[in-house]
Amino acid sequence: MDPSALHGLVEQGFNDGDVEALVRLYEPGARMVRDDGTAAVGTDEIRALLTGLLEPGGRIGVVTRYAVEAGDLALLSNVWTYEDDGGSFSSVTAEVARRQDDGSWRYVIDNPYAAAPDAPAEP
């Protein structure tokens, strides 16, 4: 499995409203950054965060920007767009994933709010 396949699994799990499918994409001690910059730590906190994100019932689209592998680690980024009856918004992610013993990838660090899609790059 290519690490960028995580993006398709996130899109599918989110649009299916399947919080458990999403939680399975994270290592037990993973960290997921909230929109206020704090982090949910571990799958229980990530589950609670994801449950809240799924509640409005919107849809998400995910487009991979890159996936760079270095051994069993990968640095990934995507642009996601969320849409519901109230409108839409999007962001650019910064993610670190680790290859598992079975060849799959799981998130170690997931920052869904790393930058606005049109934000200039820092020098």
Give a structural overview.
- This protein is of the alpha+beta class.
- It has three helices and six strands, in the order H-H-E-E-H-E-E-E-E.
- The chain has helices spanning 5-16, 19-23, 42-54; strands at 26-33, 39-41, 59-70, 73-84, 87-99, 105-115.
- A six-stranded mixed β-sheet has the order 2-1-6-5-4-3.
- A hairpin with a 2-residue loop joins strand 3 (59-70) and strand 4.
- It is globular, with a radius of gyration of 14 Å.
- It starts with a helix and ends in an 8-residue tail after the last strand.
- The mean pLDDT is 94.
Structural class, by secondary structure, is alpha+beta
Which shape, going by the Cα principal axes?
globular
**Strand line-up of the largest beta sheet:** 2-1-6-5-4-3
Uncertain parts: none
What's the average pLDDT? 94
Beta-strand proportion? over 45%
Largest sheet: 6 strands, mixed
Number of strand segments: 6
Order of helices and strands: HHEEHEEEE
What is the straight-line distance between the termini?
33 Å
The number of helices is 3
Question: Mind telling me the C-alpha Rg?
Answer: 14 Å
The share of residues in helices is: 10-25%
For this entry, what is the oligomeric state of its chains?
Answer: single chain
